[in-house]
């Protein structure tokens, strides 16, 4: 399973209503699209079977900051990651602010 969440570190709160796309990284084939819930989370992309390989999450954060009337230097964040064991849970959090972002493998 692949999940994610977004925390707006500028405000110290979750980023709701952000579109997140999941792609196969090698082919850039779109697998799924989701929107973060009020807690800033996508707990399930609705995909039950994953293969080992490279994937990419794309976070459309420009509309999120625009809705707050805040300019951002990074309108989209793309994170590539590798699945080595498809039976594991892969959680990829994203921390954002108008001029920076970071990520890590969560649990």
Structure description:
With 107 residues, the protein is mostly beta strands. 6% of the residues lie in helices and 49% in strands. The chain is built from 1 helix and 9 strands, in the order ββββββαβββ. The strands form 2 sheets. Strands 1, 2, 5, 8 and 9 form a 5-stranded mixed sheet that branches. Strand 3 and strand 4 (29-35) form a beta hairpin.
**Intertermini distance:** 11 Å
Describe the main β-sheet briefly: 5 strands, mixed
The global form is globular
User: What is the average per-residue confidence, as pLDDT, rounded to a whole number?
Assistant: 95
Radius of gyration: 13 Å
Low-pLDDT runs: none
Number of strands: 9
Secondary-structure class: mainly beta
Query: Fraction of residues in helices?
Result: under 10%
Number of helices: 1
Question: Which features does this protein show?
Answer:
globular; mainly beta; 49% strand; five-stranded mixed β-sheet; four-stranded antiparallel β-sheet; 1 helix
Question: How would you summarize what this structure contains?
Answer:
The protein is mostly beta strands. It has one helix at residues 62-67, and strands at 2-8, 13-14, 19-24, 29-35, 41-42, 53-60, 76-83, 90-97, 100-103. Strand 1 and strand 2 form a beta hairpin.
Please give the structural blueprint.
Blueprint: E1 2-8, E2 13-14, E3 19-24, E4 29-35, E5 41-42, E6 53-60, H1 62-67, E7 76-83, E8 90-97, E9 100-103
Parallel strand pairs: 1-8
Antiparallel strand pairs: 1-2, 1-5, 3-4, 3-6, 6-7, 8-9
């Amino acid at each position: 399973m692949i999940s994610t969440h977004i925390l707006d570190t500028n405000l110290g709160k979750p980023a709701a209503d952000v579109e997140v796309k999941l792609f196969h990284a090698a082919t850039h084939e779109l697998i799924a699209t989701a929107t973060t819930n009020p807690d800033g989370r996508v707990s399930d992309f609705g995909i039950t079977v994953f293969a080992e390989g490279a994937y990419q999450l794309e976070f459309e954060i420009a509309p999120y900051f625009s809705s707050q009337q805040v300019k951002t230097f990074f309108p989209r964040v793309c994170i590539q990651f590798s699945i080595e064991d498809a039976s594991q849970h892969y959680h990829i959090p994203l921390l954002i602010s108008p001029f920076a972002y970071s990520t890590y493998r969560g649990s």
